[in-house]
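Could you show me just one protein sequence together with its fold in token form as a worked example?
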Amino acid sequence: MAMLMMKDNMNQLFADYEHPAFYDEMFEGRGKGRVHYGTMLQRLAKMGLEELQERDAMMQAEMVTQGITFTLYSHNPEESARERTIPFDILPRMITSEEWAHMNDGLKQRVKALNLFIWDIYHEQNILKAGLIPSEMVLNNPYYLQEMVGVDVPNGNYIPLSGIDIIRGQSGEFYVLEDNLRTPSGLSYVYKNRELMTNLFPELFYDHRIRSIDPGINALLSSLRSLAPDSNPDPLVVLLTPGIYNSAYYDHCFLAQEMGIELVQGSDLIVRDQTVYLKNRDGLRKVDVIYRRIDDEYLDPQVFRKDSLLGVPGLMAAYLAGNVALANAPGTGVADDKAVYAFVPDMIRYYLKEEPILSNVPTYILTRPHEREYVLSRLGEMVVKERSLSGGYGMLIGPTATEEEIKAFADKIVQHPERYIAQPTVKLSCSPSLTGGTVAPRHIDLRAFTFMGPDTYVVPGGLTRVALKEGSLVVNSSQGGGTKDTWVLA
């Protein structure tokens, strides 16, 4: 009788669930849950839809109370930016220990190769001389900084923090979709998601052995401290934020608080004799490491944008003199480039003499005439991305675009093929999400956070991002996407 009641509850919970024509993270067939979701499905069945809705309401209220927010900006000049709680889906995403071991190894391999690539292009440029990557793609890149040529950064570590976006395809395989190496955001939501879920669903945590994410904050702090000039054993580390109007300001506040470091703006710092100091009531304190969350062009008005009020005059002189460390290093954005991304497997083979563990999504370089013509003839099937943009901006998703949008992008590609890359539309995996008062499939990806320092550490699971709009493939928070807790089974 109890088993029959549980089955009825399960049928009720997923009564309107339309099993997608994509890889489903929870189900391997209609009504058949994947083995590692078995215990969770039983627990959800006991709760039922009404209790899930009640807990979801409690979750949303708690997020408002705690001010867990993200600011959305509009390209419409008549619409102002609006701050809102980042949408949170209470149905967690689970990853098996075997799947995570594969991703963990692949992420460490990828970040190591990317770091070697950044060192090489600012020093000997061997990979360019070998012809593996077109020189103009790197040396003419807007993120390639001449100021960094020949500069030896602390420990040769350009990217102590990276956020690598991973997707699962229709057959269940994992692909890297994008590398985020400049100022990757979202780490705070990993920890707040876990805190909220632990408080509201203690029984689910009791039922499962889940890898802890707690060591991650200390691992990040250790990576930052390891950059200190002269190997200072007790360095002053600060987080440089653009301020309260930045979309990720909550992220900045949370990380500074959790790591126990100072949250500062440019006006809080001053450079004297090529040394950076923090101004406070007691005078000046020498700063050793700056975890910067502002882009290169705003770092120093004496070197980059003269109108920048976000940075610190003289900061680059202090940095180039070796008196302060910047994380991530200036000039890393060239490795973020969506065209350079296509060559990361070649970097791994070249620098590490290994085969890539994680594959790329196939990518078309539109400056190549034959690839450009192929893409233009199938634009309705492609995803086209502007190389220099992120956050879901500057994209065409062919299958959901109008004829006018496709034609407009075709014109842009013909006029400026060097600005764009194209990829076949990948059928992102889906995961059940509580949305609109019911459970429905929504597309997801995973932002995995890797910290390079004395050791390389990957936060178990990372941030699963959810495309909350039905059928949408865009998961970015800046485009209205949400998040869910990610469990790596121990």
Summary: The CA atoms of residues 158 and 329 lie 5 Å apart.
